[in-house]
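User: ok so my PI wants both of these folded by tonight, can you help

Assistant: No problem, let's get them done. Here's the first:
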Amino acid sequence: MKRAAGTRAPARTAAPLRAAAEPSARAGAELTYGLLPQVLGYHLRRTQVAIFRHFARTVAAQTGITPGLLGMLQVIAANPGLAQSRLAEAMEVDRSTIVKVVDQLEARGLIVREPSPSDKRSYGLRLTREGAAELPRMQKLMQAHEDEFAAPLTPAERQQLIALLVRLYERADGAAEGGLAP
């Protein structure tokens, strides 16, 4: 059964000392969320958890790929020869993380790392034949997952939600770069 934002939920088990000290923290008592129902970040995080769980049941169950790996694979496919360092910047991860991700995609036979013709210190990434053959199937599964998850929204609401989220993160990115007031 779904709960409306700000409503109470059954409590999960609490630590024994706290349960004894606070009667409302006992098992079976109701749990309140304080100010969280009014906090945007709380709802974004709950939605992220829900969409990742749905992805795991749908896309990952059939492909074994994570949302992060699929996202990186899409960027590599759209930008053949992309440098690892540029992929790290685009996906906002550090260099050590990108090496692990590239290793995973390479081990799965989906991409290949090749020395850059213009910079011998850098590697370019591209899909393998297997990666190029597998990506359309993954994209189809991902689109079905997205459509199923977003089914409660109309197409216009979905586009509005995306536009609002883009507005928020672009403003935050601008503020972080010193372009806007926080």
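One down. Here's the second:
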Amino acid sequence: MDIFSYFRDKGIDTVNPTYYRQIEIWRSWYNSNVKKFHKYKVYRGNGASVNCLRHSLGMAKKVCEDMADLLLNERVTITIADQTTDAFVKGVLEANTWEELGNEFQEWKSALGTVAYVVYIKDATVDEAGNMTGGSVGINYVEAAHIYPTSWQNKVITECIFTFPKTYKRKKYVHFQYHRIEDVPGENRKQYVIENTVVENTSGSGRELTPDQWEEIPAFSGLAERIETGSDQPLFIIDRLNMVNNADDDTTNPMGVSLFANAIDIIRKIDLEYDSYANEFSLGRKRIFVAPEFLSNTNGSPVFDPNDSVFYELPEDYFKNAESKEAIREINMELRIEEHSKAINDDLNWLSFKCGFGTDRYKFEAGSVKTATEVISENSDMYRSLTKHELVLNRVLIQLIQTIIRAGISIGIPGLQENTDVTIQFDDSIIEDKVTERQNDRQDVAMGAMGLAEYRAKWYGETPEQAQQNLPEQFNDTGVIQ
């Protein structure tokens, strides 16, 4: 179905369709499967051609993997001041496989520019007064191709449609989940409502199902047509790279841009060079040309192994027509390994620079790409790029946690505090200057110039209150032994 035809029929405005075609271009480079590039034809003369598959280093995916691993890895800590709330939130994250999918969707964010986390409540019961009890909090992870903003201001998306494709009995369906804000009748306030629609994926704008019809499909059974949240805070969080989106002429477009969007020409060149490098070994392998008269013994048995591809049989009557009378000629092609390696390494440096990693992040060696593992300086391009993206991710993670807390409060989880302090401690283990800074802080603690609680709060990702509580009993609040 054409989703944009469906939106037009419904009178819904969203981001220009050309932007979503750009997303699919980024996806094709991420998958190393670009039409008319990774699959191509080579003309062999006489009107004949052969289909070829281009070798790829897969660098579009590699830079996305590396950015995801730097932004959200096992060393990133989330600290919530209230212990009851902390335990609840971390339980929700664990139940929704955050440790795996969180990193995976950071990679999708790097590849396609935008992802979203949609918090929802499942298996809850609602009484006559509209109060929810029981149930649990879930998270839907959504990548860019299924995010359709309908209202935004200063790049902040306030209303949005998320699509969830499903298949049942070989028929394809799309679940449209529309989060929009509206006035509460008779009250001077607003609330978010969620409107659900299921459309069968047919030609044109599809065939919209009634609630009774989608109730018969297991994937949509129990899906409410309309949900009033009672809150003016959204249940979705949009996460994007902290980069200007220059993929769309509309500068107000609130969606993000791929990490490698402005380096596609370099990725294309790298794959051309690597394909040539790989073919160098295939096309330049050793050949031994043998006259047909010397391929068999007098008894008809073969002289050479017929399965050995190094031997090439010359045409019949070769000696009669050839100037050379050599029965066997060995050909050793010259391999241009050094030239190929230098060209690939030069472009890997350009790619690393364009994607915010600085230079010398990647090195082509012994036929594969190696990644630099040394620590970096706070003055490096990579550090500045990483901290810039962490500004957005810090806000996103705090919003996600606050949304989970509100959802927990709405289903009656006792003891949750919505306004408790949340601290995100990102991984700084690769930053050279942090090692020196931490050592200096230890010396300050030892000489009494810095409190131990202050040190713990800074380096252990704890709130000041938690740091104070976690001090050994023999220390006072200044870190001095009592």
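The chain has three domains: 3-59+100-257, 265-368, 436-482. The mean pLDDT is 85. Good luck tonight!
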